[in-house]
Backbone:
């Protein structure tokens, strides 16, 4: 049998990041026609072949998705496509796949790059939310599960690289129009919400000046609706019935949500190759992102409410220990009409040039700048039958849990859609703010703590990143190595968060006029149905309009609540890395061996500015903080591929890797108190809680071993084993703090002792993570030619961990599902396309937004999501008059899989049960 050994040209092209090996092989075909058989397959199958070739000819362990043309990735979002890859999965946010986990690690443990450059993020931390990026303007995504020394990003889990098209590689003019209509499975859940939307993309690729200049441009506009019926429980306290203690509903906040994600995106690429030795590429990306949410529901206190629970009404499930139904008498509720806007703007510019000095030496220079700004304006508006705990009509309310506590059916006696009954104002005494009481003179009166008629959360994020890279390589001519590369890179990142909140009080409220306000006619939107929980209809009004038109006075919460100061911060990182790498192209006996061996040295200088906050006489007092820290890492890596024959490859990889600390955990904003009389157990008078700006990265050494069999152009089988030796993680703990020069907030004087005990995140602990991956791409034509076009893609991943904190306590990694599965059946032939896909993951811990948009970790139940798509390509079907036109119809979340989170160690302690329904998309693509 003839042995297959990739030539130097092939290795160079794949190492340069080309997602399509077919293009590389076509160029190389003039040199060695026998090396690779080129098979022309278009559509989904063509993308599949391209992805398989990227994996097959990579020198590392990678997974890939490719688009046949720009705007034609296999799914409607990047995250959904990525989540089908072996070892990867996604967490849904508001019904959309957004946060991607790799091999059991959360999104914070992987790096995301765009054309090889690290990305900013719209969240509070490093993890990228992929719904910011339109799939319609991307040409592919590559996931590096093992790093090499030249990869300019760090992540224990891996690196996810999104790529735009290279216009000169396309080799032809392409003008394409894509459009989709979108419809939610639910009718409008809110009268002023949307249940239909659209997506549209125009893209243009061309080459000029004898194919020495290439241009690519794409513009995408999207208005995507999303709806949800949500059951949200406050918790499950103990309640005595029949002489025993049982879990009962503490209270609930069910609601219906209507969201519209609007996104305008533009991508531009200019590529120039004036000579065979020089290539220059400029790329730009702009995204204007707006996510509007309308939320309406009724907050129902139960065991934690003011009503009286009739113990005789309680029905008990002895097997589960829950009171499955009960009645409370004399309970008031809060009718909520909430509105939220999340706006973000992303800009990125990059320039790359590669110059071959001669046949041996080449240089590369890369520079980029990117920035994202995010603002959230989240309004809670309260209404009810009267102000405070004791005013207005109370209700008698009963609940009966749905099966598995996934919701409840309430009984009630009041009509919550009656505009004469339900009026604007705070129906329960939740506004325990000294600033509000002082402003309205309420202290000691019957209306103390009743002036909160709503609340606004308004956090802001700004993230800026500049990168530079200079590298050189030299081709080698020996039996072992084909190239040596070395270089230096620089990254400068600054991320800041400003947290603020506002109490809302009706503008005419005073001690002399403490009543409620009838909802003005012009802001009434009718009613919203809460039949899914048995509460009937409720009033619906335009909360944002009321706020904008001045119906409320606003008062900063940060005057009396120090959390906004401790959640406001700036973090800076300057990272300088040098690397050296040898590309391997050798033979051991008769077995060709390719790969690379190298190392990176990474020096990091980090600093953070924030506030040390305390409350004195009811008001927040702050002192500025500024803390710096530096550290370095030596990160060796090796990747080896053994070509057993033309179809079979064994890969081995080993690397030292790091994941940097979350930004909300390494900032310099803290709560600080000084005890003038009694030191703590450590002998310190200062007590600090909050961020730890001296946190260092998590560290692990990873090993990968895989077997790959490429038995067909569309088919392969792979089995992989991976192991991570975790030598440092981040946990809750205590640490020493130097408070030299910081004044005691209560006196304004600098105390004699400057040492303090910090409580927050610390480095430490150790453990292991290991797992396996099985993946298969199987065209059914290998069984019989009559099955041409049929096939399946499947993968299964199992992950286990054994991790302990610095005190020896067991710890469960966030994002880790111990089982991940994906499955796609497809048929594509003569223009007709059909496929159905499934992605499944087991239970895991994940981050959600809690009160005040604080990131909260909860237990999330596993889920299985099915999607399907039908399509027809008229060109492939032989309709010459309709050449270039294709149509598609998609159904997402066919089985209406909910998102379920818990707030305890019992599967019946449901925190959230979110039902998103199905989504339908009808689209077309026309290529000139």
Residues:
């Amino acid at each position: 049998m003839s042995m297959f050994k990739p030539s130097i040209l092939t290795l160079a092209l794949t190492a340069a990041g080309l997602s399509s090996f077919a293009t590389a092989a076509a160029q190389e075909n003039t040199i060695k026609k026998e090396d690779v058989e080129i098979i022309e397959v278009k559509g989904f199958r063509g993308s599949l072949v391209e992805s398989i070739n990227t994996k097959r000819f990579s020198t590392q362990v990678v997974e890939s998705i490719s688009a046949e043309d720009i705007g034609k990735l296999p799914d409607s979002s990047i995250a959904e496509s990525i989540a089908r890859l072996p070892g990867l999965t996604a967490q849904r946010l508001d019904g959309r796949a957004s946060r991607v986990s790799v091999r059991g690690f959360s999104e914070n443990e992987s790096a995301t790059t765009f054309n090889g450059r690290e990305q900013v993020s719209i969240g509070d931390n490093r993890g990228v939310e992929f719904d910011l990026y339109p799939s319609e303007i991307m040409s592919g995504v590559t996931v590096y599960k093992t790093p090499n020394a030249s990869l300019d990003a760090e992540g224990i889990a891996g690196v996810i690289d999104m790529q735009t098209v290279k216009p000169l590689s396309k080799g032809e003019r392409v003008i394409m129009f894509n459009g989709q209509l979108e419809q939610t499975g639910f009718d409008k859940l809110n009268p002023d919400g949307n249940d239909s939307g659209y997506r549209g993309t125009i893209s243009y690729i061309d080459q000029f000046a004898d194919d020495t200049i290439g241009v690519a441009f794409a513009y995408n506009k999207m208005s995507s609706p999303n709806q949800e019926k949500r059951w949200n429980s406050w918790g499950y306290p103990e309640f005595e019935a029949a002489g025993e203690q049982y879990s009962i509903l503490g209270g609930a906040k069910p609601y219906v949500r209507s969201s519209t994600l609007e996104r305008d995106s533009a991508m531009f690429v200019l590529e120039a190759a004036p000579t065979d030795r020089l290539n220059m590429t400029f790329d730009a990306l702009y995204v204007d992102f707006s996510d509007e949410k309308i939320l309406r529901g009724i907050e129902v206190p139960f065991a934690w409410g003011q009503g009286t629970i009739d113990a005789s009404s309680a029905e008990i499930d002895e097997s589960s220990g829950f009171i499955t139904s009960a009645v409370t008498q004399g309970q008031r509720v809060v009718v909520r009409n909430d509105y939220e806007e999340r706006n973000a703007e992303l800009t990125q510019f990059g320039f790359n040039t590669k110059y071959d000095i001669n046949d041996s030496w080449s240089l590369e220079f890369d520079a980029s700048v990117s920035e994202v700004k995010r603002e959230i304006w989240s309004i809670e508006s309260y209404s009810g039958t009267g102000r405070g705990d004791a005013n207005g009509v109370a209700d008698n309310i009963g609940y009966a849990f749905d099966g598995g506590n996934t919701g409840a059916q309430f009984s009630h006696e009041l009509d919550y859609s009656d505009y004469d009954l339900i009026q604007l104002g705070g129906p329960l005494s939740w506004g325990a703010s000294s600033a509000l009481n002082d402003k309205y003179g309420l202290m000691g009166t019957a209306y103390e703590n009743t002036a909160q008629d709503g609340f606004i959360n308004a956090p802001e994020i700004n993230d800026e990143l500049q990168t530079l890279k200079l590298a050189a390589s030299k081709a080698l001519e020996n039996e072992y190595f084909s190239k040596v590369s070395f270089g230096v890179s620089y990254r400068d990142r600054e991320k800041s968060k400003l947290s603020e909140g506002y109490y809302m009080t009706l503008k005419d409220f005073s001690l002399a006029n403490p009543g409620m306000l009838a909802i003005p006619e012009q802001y009434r939107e009718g009613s919203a149905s809460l039949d899914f929980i048995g509460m009937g209809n409720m009033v619906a009004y335009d909360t944002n309009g009321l706020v904008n038109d001045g119906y409320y006075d606003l008062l900063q919460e940060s005057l009396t609540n120090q959390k906004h100061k401790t959640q406001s911060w700036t973090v800076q990182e300057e990272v300088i890395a040098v690397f050296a790498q040898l590309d391997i192209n050798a033979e051991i006996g008769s077995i060709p061996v390719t790969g690379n061996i190298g190392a990176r040295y990474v020096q990091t200088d980090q600093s953070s500015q924030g506030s040390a906050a305390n409350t004195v006489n009811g008001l927040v007092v702050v002192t500025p903080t500024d803390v710096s820290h530096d550290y370095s890492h030596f990160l060796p890596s090796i990747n080896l591929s053994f070509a057993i024959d033309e179809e079979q490859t064994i890969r081995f990889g080993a690397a030292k890797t790091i994941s940097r600390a979350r930004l909300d955990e390494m900032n310099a904003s803290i709560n600080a108190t000084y005890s003038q009389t009694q030191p703590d157990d450590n002998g310190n008078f200062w007590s600090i809680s909050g961020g730890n700006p001296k946190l260092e990265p998590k560290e692990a050494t990873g090993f990968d071993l895989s077997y790959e069999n490429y038995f067909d152009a569309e088919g392969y089988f792979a089995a992989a084993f991976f192991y991570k030796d975790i030598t440092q993680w981040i946990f809750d703990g205590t640490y020493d703090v130097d408070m030299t020069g910081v004044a005691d907030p209560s006196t304004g004087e600098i105390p004699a002792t400057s040492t303090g005990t910090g409580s927050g995140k610390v480095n430490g602990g150790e453990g292991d993570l290991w797992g396996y991956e099985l993946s298969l791409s199987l065209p059914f034509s290998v069984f019989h030619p009559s099955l041409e076009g049929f096939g399946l893609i499947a993968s299964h991943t199992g992950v286990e961990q054994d991790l302990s904190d610095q005190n020896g306590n067991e710890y469960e990694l966030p994002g880790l599902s111990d089982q991940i599965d994906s499955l796609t059946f497809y048929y594509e032939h003569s223009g007709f396309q059909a496929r159905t896909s499934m992605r499944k993951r087991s239970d895991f811990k994940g981050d959600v937004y809690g009160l005040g948009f604080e990131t909260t970790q909860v237990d999330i139940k596993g889920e299985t999501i099915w999607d399907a798509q039908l399509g027809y390509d008229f060109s492939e079907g032989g309709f010459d008059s309709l050449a270039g036109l294709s149509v598609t119809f998609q159904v997402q979340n066919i089985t209406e899989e909910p998102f379920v989170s818990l707030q305890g160690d019992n599967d019946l302690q449901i925190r959230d049960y979110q039902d998103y329904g199905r989504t339908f998309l009808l689209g077309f693509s026309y290529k000139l």
The radius of gyration is 30 Å. The CA atoms of residues 655 and 697 lie 16 Å apart. Confidence is low (pLDDT under 50) at residues 1-39.
